[in-house]
Specification:
This protein is α+β, with helices and mostly antiparallel strands. The protein folds into four domains: 191 residues, Histidine kinase-like ATPase, C-terminal domain (Heat Shock Protein 90, 2-Layer Sandwich); 131 residues, 2-Layer Sandwich (Ribosomal Protein S5, domain 2); 78 residues, Rossmann fold (3-Layer(aba) Sandwich), CATH 3.40.50; 114 residues, Heat shock protein 90, C-terminal domain (Four Helix Bundle (Hemerythrin (Met), subunit A), Up-down Bundle). The protein is built from 20 helices and 22 strands. A hairpin with an 8-residue loop joins strand 1 and strand 2. It is elongated, with a radius of gyration of 37 Å. It starts with 12 loop residues before the first helix and ends with a helix. It holds the Pfam family HATPase_c_3. InterPro entries: HATPase_C_sf, HSP90_C, Hsp90_fam, Hsp90_N, Ribosomal_Su5_D2-typ_SF. Belongs to the heat shock protein 90 family. Keywords: ATP-binding, Chaperone, Nucleotide-binding.
C-alpha cells in the first residue's frame, strides 16, 4: 500500500436516498418543489442572456398509454460537461459557480435531483443547451449508474425530466393529488405552469400572487387573506423590508390568541413556497399576526423547508417588529375603530410590545385595559379617579384584598396576569405622579380602623386566652373594625413569614432542603397576623365567652377558616385541628339540644 496515495470517498446512492426521504425532506412531495426550483432557475439563467424570453413550464401526468411523468422547462439547458458535473455529482450545483450571481436562483446545494429518486426508480433528463448544436439524454438509476446519449438538436431549448413512479408513490402523480401540491409550491411563480392531463390543459398559477406587488387596495388584500387562510381578518398591513428584500402582507387576527399557540404563515423564497412556519421572522410577541411573505435575498437551508438563521434574518425580524409598531401608532389616528378593536382583542400582545418599547408605551398607555376590583378599566379610567393605584401581583392576594378595598373605596388592580406587574412598575418609574403601589392583605390590614386604648384594655383577657389557644402558631393577634361586617376574621402573612412557614413545612415533611434554605440570611422576621373584626356579630359574641372549653374550638375553626379564605396552604396539622374542633362543637351542640 502506497501511504502517499490519495483516495476518494465513496457514496452509497441508495443510502443517500433513504437519508433524504427519512431525515432531510419532510414528505415525498418534495420532488415537485425541487423540479420547480430547477426549472425556474434554468429559465432565470436564460433570461439573463435574453430578457425577451417568456418562461414556461409544461407538465404531463402519467396516462394508461404513457405510464411516465414529464416535467419540461424552456430554460438555458445543460451542456455535456455540465451534465457530468451538476447532474451526476451529489452536492455540486451550477448555481454556486463563482461567475454566476447566485442571488437570482432558488437552489444552491446540488441535491435537488436526488429527491426524484425518492419517488422514481429511474430518471431521464433530455436537455438542449442554448450553447450546443445537439441535445443529450442522461439516464440514471437508483443503483448509482448513469449513461449519456447524444441526440439531434432540439429546436426547443430547455430541459425535460422524465420519471417512472415507484409502485407505492403512484398516487402522487394523479391529478387530484398533484394539482393542489404544485399550486401549493408554485402558485406565486411568474413563469407560466401548465399541466397536460389526457385532453385537459390546466394553468396552475393564473393569479401569480398579486400580494407580492404591494400595490393592491386594502379590500383586495383582505380578500386574499380570506382565500389563503380562510379567516376574515381585522386588518391587513402591506410591507416591504430593506433587509432580505422582503415584501408581503401582515394580517391582524380577529380573535384572541395565546403566546403558546402556533400560527401558520406562508413564506416564499423568490416566489417559491418555502414553509408555513415564521422561522423566527416575527417578534416573539407577534402571535396575533399571520403573514404572507416573499423574500428575494434570504437563504434557505439544505432541505429548502426553512430559512437560515443569520444576521440578515435578524434584521428582517427587527424591521417587521417596527412595521407593526408604526402601524398601531398611525392606526390610532387613521382608524380609531380598528385600533380599539385590536386593543380589546389583543391587549396582552400590545402590553408585550409596550414592555419592550418605552415610546410605544407612551402612545398606548391610556388605552391598556386592566382588571380591577371594580371590573375591567382602561388605564385612563383608573388614573382619572385621582386615587393611589394599588396592585396585587398575586391572584389569591387580590381575591382577599378586593372585598375590603371595595368597602374602603380603593381601586386595586389584579396584576397577576402576564406582563401586568412589570408594566405597572415601568409606568410607575416613568410617571411617579400616578402614585402606583403594590399592596397585599398584610399592608391593607394596617390601613384598617384600629380600636382605641380603652377598648384595647377591655380585651386583654380574651386576647390572652386566644393567644394561648394558638400559641403553637406564633401569631400576632389584632382587633380591628372594618367592612364588610360579614367577614369575621382575616389571616395574613408578610413575605418573610411565608418564607419561615415554608421552612417549617419542609421540616415537618423531613425534607433535606429545609436546613439549606434556612441558612439563607433573613431580616428581622414579622409574624403572621390573625385579625378579628369587632364589627362582626359572631366576634362580638366570641369576646364574651369565658369558658375556655367552648372558646377553644370556636377560635380554632375561625383560625383555619381564615387561612383557607386567604388561600394559604393548610397543613395536616391545621386540618386535624379543624376537624377535632368542628367535632367538639357538634357534640356540644347536640348535648345542648338533648338537654333542652
Amino acid at each position: 500500500m502506497d501511504q502517499n496515495q490519495p483516495y476518494s470517498f465513496q457514496v452509497n446512492l441508495q443510502g443517500m436516498i433513504s437519508l433524504l426521504s427519512e431525515h432531510l425532506y419532510s414528505n415525498p412531495n418534495t420532488f415537485i418543489r425541487e423540479l420547480l426550483q430547477n426549472g425556474v432557475d434554468a429559465i432565470t439563467a436564460r433570461k439573463n442572456l435574453d430578457e425577451t424570453i417568456v418562461g414556461k413550464i409544461k407538465i404531463q401526468l402519467p396516462t394508461d398509454e404513457d405510464a411516465f411523468f414529464t416535467f419540461q422547462d424552456n430554460g438555458i439547458g445543460l451542456k455535456e460537461n455540465e451534465i457530468h458535473q451538476f447532474l451526476s455529482v451529489i452536492g455540486e450545483s451550477s448555481k454556486r459557480n463563482d461567475n454566476i450571481d447566485g442571488k437570482d436562483f432558488i437552489g444552491k446545494f446540488g441535491i435537488g435531483m436526488l429527491s426524484c429518486f425518492v419517488v422514481s426508480e429511474k430518471i431521464i433528463v433530455e436537455t438542449q443547451s442554448i450553447f450546443e448544436d445537439h441535445s443529450f439524454r442522461w439516464t440514471a438509476s437508483s443503483d448509482g449508474n448513469y449513461t449519456i446519449e447524444n441526440l439531434p438538436r432540439n429546436e426547443n431549448v430547455g430541459t425535460k425530466v422524465i420519471l417512472y413512479s415507484k409502485a407505492q408513490y403512484k398516487h402522487l402523480f394523479g391529478l387530484n393529488h398533484f394539482l393542489p401540491q404544485i399550486r401549493y409550491y408554485g402558485n406565486a411563480l411568474t413563469e407560466e405552469i401548465v399541466i397536460e392531463n389526457k385532453n385537459d390543459t390546466i394553468i396552475v398559477n393564473e393569479t401569480k400572487a398579486q400580494w407580492i406587488n404591494g400595490n393592491l387596495e386594502k379590500e383586495d388584500l383582505l380578500q386574499i387573506g380570506r382565500d389563503v387562510f380562510n379567516i376574515k381578518f381585522l386588518d391587513a398591513i402591506p410591507f416591504h423590508t430593506k433587509a432580505g428584500d422582503c415584501s408581503g402582507v401582515l394580517y391582524i387576527l380577529p380573535q384572541k390568541t395565546s403566546f403558546s399557540g402556533k400560527q401558520n404563515h406562508r413564506v416564499f423564497l423568490k416566489r417559491m413556497f418555502l414553509t408555513e412556519n415564521d422561522n423566527g421572522l416575527l417578534p416573539s410577541w407577534a402571535f396575533f399576526v399571520k403573514m404572507l411573505l416573499n423574500s428575494n435575498d434570504l437563504n434557505a437551508t439544505a432541505s429548502r423547508e426553512s430559512l437560515m438563521h443569520n444576521d440578515v434574518l435578524r434584521e428582517v425580524k427587527k424591521e417587521l417588529g417596527e412595521i407593526i409598531k408604526h402601524y398601531l401608532e398611525s392606526l390610532k389616528t387613521l382608524n380609531p375603530e380598528i385600533y380599539y378593536k385590536i386593543i380589546q382583542v389583543h391587549f396582552l400582545h400590545v402590553k408585550a410590545i409596550a414592555l419592550e418599547d418605552t415610546e410605544f408605551l407612551q402612545l398606548v398607555i391610556n388605552d391598556l385595559p386592566f382588571e380591577t376590583n371594580k371590573g375591567f378599566r382602561s388605564f385612563r379610567n383608573i388614573i382619572e379617579t385621582g386615587q393611589t393605584i394599588y396592585y396585587c401581583p398575586d391572584f389569591d392576594e387580590f381575591k382577599q384584598v378586593q372585598r375590603l378595598a371595595n368597602f374602603q373605596g380603593n381601586m386595586v388592580v389584579n396584576a397577576s396576569y402576564t406582563f401586568d406587574e412589570e408594566l405597572l412598575r415601568k409606568i410607575a418609574s416613568a410617571h411617579p405622579e400616578y402614585k402606583i403601589q403594590a399592596i397585599n392583605s398584610y399592608k391593607l390590614l394596617n390601613s384598617l380602623q384600629s380600636i382605641d386604648e380603652k377598648e384595647e384594655i377591655s380585651l386583654l383577657g380574651i386576647r390572652t386566652k386566644i393567644l394561648e389557644i394558638l400559641k403553637s402558631y406564633n401569631i400576632e393577634l389584632e382587633f380591628k373594625r372594618f367592612q364588610p361586617s360579614d367577614t369575621p376574621t382575616l389571616y395574613t402573612r408578610p413575605e418573610e413569614s411565608a418564607f419561615n412557614n415554608t421552612i417549617k413545612q419542609l421540616k415537618e415533611n423531613s425534607n433535606p432542603f429545609a436546613s439549606a434554605i434556612q441558612s439563607i440570611p433573613q431580616e428581622v422576621q414579622k409574624k403572621p397576623v390573625f385579625c378579628l373584626n369587632l364589627d362582626n356579630s359572631l366576634i362580638q359574641n366570641l369576646i364574651t365567652i369565658t369558658d375556655t372549653d367552648i372558646l377553644t374550638p370556636i377560635v380554632q375553626v375561625l383560625f383555619v377558616q381564615a387561612m383557607l379564605m386567604g388561600k394559604y396552604t393548610v397543613s395536616e396539622k391545621e386540618l386535624t385541628m379543624f376537624n377535632d374542633a368542628l367535632y367538639s362543637l357538634i357534640v356540644m351542640g347536640m348535648t345542648n339540644f338533648i338537654n333542652i
